[in-house]
Amino acid sequence: MNGIPSGKARGEMVASSTFNGRFALVIGGSGGIGRAVSLELVRRGARLLVHGRQAEERMKTSSPASLSTFDYAFDSPRNFIQALDARLADMRAEPDIVICAFGPFSEKPLEMVSAEEWEYLTMANLALPGAMASHFLAGMKARGYGRFLFFGGTRTDAIRPFRKTAAYAAAKTGLGVLAKSIAASAGDRNVAAVVVCPGPTDTEYLNAETRARHASLTATGSLLPAKLIAHASLDLIDADPCIASGAIVALDGGFDPESRR
């Protein structure tokens, strides 16, 4: 199983997608789950601007004419949006769909997290998605269409304690407030937002030791394919009207690491 419904071959265009002809911006779209999302959006007929470090280099082997790139190393939401606006002005485009798959991760006990790490993790994982929503929401409302998809962390679909990832998880948990606020304030203008919290996923960012350790905590002993997460996540917002708006969805197969210890 590859997560693609029967009758749709890998790479085949999805003619019935509501994304067909829409313009999507994918933050963190050149690697990991973000890359899988970018490729699935192309399959659904969207035009893309894919952000990432070395995005042009990383996407060149799978870059159709509908895909453009934005290479930028994140430093602050303000600087990021200024650089992004310049790129969008060159393209003469505003996004109909904004997807935030960027999210620096930190795994260490709470007492070992520095003030600088707190600032960076919060800015990258919460302030950047929030600033993107504030920046593009008015235009989406005026056009009568908009979709936001935010990627949370594993088990950040509710307020929970975390022994080794508290700073990262605290920022990611806040995305639920953002999505529900967009849904409440802009639903009447056909603007929707969803948060997806994937389970342990197999990406190129994991080394062999981390991959094995994370897999050992799952019920199946294996990691989730990024393509499956991408497909299921986009299905949640690939609808008009979007009845999933405001949802915080755990795509983790009932992941419960405590039961595996």
The helix fraction, in percent, is 25-40%
Task: Give a count of the beta strands, DSSP E runs of length 2 or more.
Answer: 9
**Under the CATH scheme, which class?**
Alpha Beta
Shape: globular
CATH third-level topology: Rossmann fold
Estimate what percentage of residues fall within beta strands: 15-25%
Secondary structure tally, helices: 8
N/C terminus separation: 28 Å
Number of domains: 1
Strand order of the largest sheet: 3-2-1-4-5-6-9
**Fourth-level CATH superfamily:** NAD(P)-binding Rossmann-like Domain
H/E order of the elements?
EHEHEHEHEHHEEHEHE
Mean pLDDT across all amino acids: 90
CATH architecture: 3-Layer(aba) Sandwich
Largest sheet composition: 7 strands, parallel
Rg of Cα set: 18 Å
Which structural category do the helix and sheet elements fall into? alpha/beta
Uncertain ranges: 1-10
Pfam families: adh_short
GO molecular function, one term: oxidoreductase activity
Keywords: Oxidoreductase
Protein name: Short-chain dehydrogenase/reductase SDR
Write structural notes for this entry.
This protein has 261 residues and is α/β, with parallel strands linked by helices. 39% of the residues lie in helices and 16% in strands. It has a single domain, classed as Rossmann fold (3-Layer(aba) Sandwich), CATH 3.40.50. Helix 1 crosses helix 8 and helix 3 runs parallel beside helix 4. It is globular, with a radius of gyration of 18 Å. The N terminus is likely disordered. Belongs to the short-chain dehydrogenases/reductases (SDR) family. Pfam families: adh_short. This is Short-chain dehydrogenase/reductase SDR.
